[in-house]
Amino acid sequence: MPLVDFRKDGPGYANWYSRVNPSEGTQYLSFRDVPGLIEKHVKGTTTLDYGCGAAKSAMSLKALGLHVDGVDVNEEMIKLAKERDPAGDYRLIKGGEIPVGDNHYDLVFSRWVLIEIGSKEELLKTMREFARVMKAEGTSILVVLSEDYFRANWLTAHCLHDDNVLESGSSVKVHFPQTDLTVYCHFWKDADYQEVIKGAGLRVVEKINPLGRDEDGIPWKTERTMSPYSIYVVKKANS
Questions:
Q1: CA contacts within 13 A on the Cβ side of 28
Q2: What number of CA atoms fall less than 13 Å from residue 214's CA on the CB side?
Q3: Are 214 and 177 in contact (CB under 8 A)?
Q4: pLDDT over 90 at 195, yes or no
Q5: pLDDT value at position 95?
Q6: Sign of the Cα pseudo-torsion (131, 113, 171, 220, in order)
Q7: CA-to-CA distance for 180 and 2, rounded, in angstroms?
Q8: What range does the record give for the signal peptide (predicted)?
Q9: Confidence (pTM)
Q10: CB neighbours of 64 closer than 8 A, spacing ≥ 6?
Q11: What share of the chain is helix, strand, coil (3-state, %, to 5)?
């Protein structure tokens, strides 16, 4: 059961991520309801996929008719993104700084990125950068692991930790049996996300915790009664 640490092994993490299908198993719930949220809350098409990885989210967003740029801190991920989508605009960034001017995007999308940040100061810095590049009427959609994610085993993911009580920022190992790999992520409470969103001058206009449904055609387990993900829809506080 190999352990991949994204903080130390960028190529290894990129290789692992390229083998995960976000449309299968538990991961399916991380995007199933996103098109409806975009239709409801987003005006315009200019979109940033922050932490674009191998462009899997970007391609799904483009299929909705959005014009998508992608950024990531992992050079190997950017290489994979360009291979998957040669016509796309994918850029390597450092320090979380987005290489565009203020008020640039109608939508900032981020899936499974905030869980890779290990300090609340960095979370706040990231949210402030999102706020900077969002247009006045812009929207951010943030997909993160729910608190329940760390308390249960899922169809295609298992958390591995010894303590029954997790503290904000705790590093947790998550095992994905379909690829027999384990990765690190960080535990954050809903209160933590709410705090940094508000601290960045933003506000939550909707939050959902998607559950598995019969019509998904997936043999759900825990996902029927507990949600592995929290999805925040965020706008500027003065909008």
A1: 17
A2: 0
A3: no
A4: yes
A5: 85
A6: positive
A7: 7
A8: none
A9: 0.92
A10: 35, 38
A11: 35, 30, 40
